[in-house]
Here is the input.
Amino acid sequence: MTDLRPRLPSPLTEAADDRFARHGVRLLLKRDDLIHPELIGNKWRKLAPNLEAAAGRTVLTFGGAYSNHLRATAAAGRLLGLRTVGVVRGDELAGRPLNPSLARCAADGMRLHFADRAAYRRKTEPDTLGRLLRAAGAQDAYVVPEGGSNAAAVRGCRGLGEELRGRADVVAVACGTGGTLAGLAAGLGPGQRALGIPVLKGGFLGADIRALQDEAFGGPVGDWHLEDRFHFGGYARVPPELESFAADFEHRHGLPVERLYVAKLLYGLVALAEEGVFPRGARVAAVVTGRPEAYAASR
Ligand SMILES: Cc1ncc(COP(=O)(O)O)c(C=O)c1O
Here is the structure.
């Protein structure tokens, strides 16, 4: 993976923002979106240890028809000369033309296998997984779970926290599966806190993060908590208020703001700063885990 020349540690920059400054708080941006042009942000941190563990075997993973994780895995396969298989949710898609996201996976050499939704839902059960692997012709594959969050990925994300030791008081990240937060919290130093902003509605994430830390580290590590008020109704919901917030943030700071995760994170941090949640003098680092599609590397 180091042949791919990741930009690590990723840059940490300060953003002058009066919504923080008037409360005596400094906003920092941890630019994980600059780690690699194609394996962006937490994708690099999660995939790198898994691709190393795969040790040349075919890598099989799962995702919906627009999954960033599938795309990143396919790109990694092309860059590293690894065979990849993507199990896609929904066998009704099998006979249809590929959408641009899946077309890119296929162009990167990923073999796509469309699974019916019932089997896809049960893919973590050993029997169903076995059947899916046989149907995809990939019994010997190294399996990476949907979203890429397994113990190796969580341990990979610990590096994010380690890079920020002593450089921030609170480090905030948007959460889907919670794998990035689980690793980040484990890497931070004493006195530093990790804050997760879930982008999905549900309230189940705390238990998932504890389970991921058990699997990766054998028990709870680090100081983390979740602020569940900024999901805007659920995954991929981008109401006009969030859209205009993101456009304004881009304008103020020249930062391309990915809408499904990063916009919710930044919105949440501005709201918390305005509520006076952060003590005066606090350094709050926002992890920029993604980049809008329009800025994706053109090839
Ligand atoms: C841009 C971006 N940020 C954050 C996340 C959340 O990561 P996690 O699933 O580890 O919570 C994802 C998930 O894939 C993502 O694509």
Notes: The chain has two domains: 2-38+150-295, 58-140.
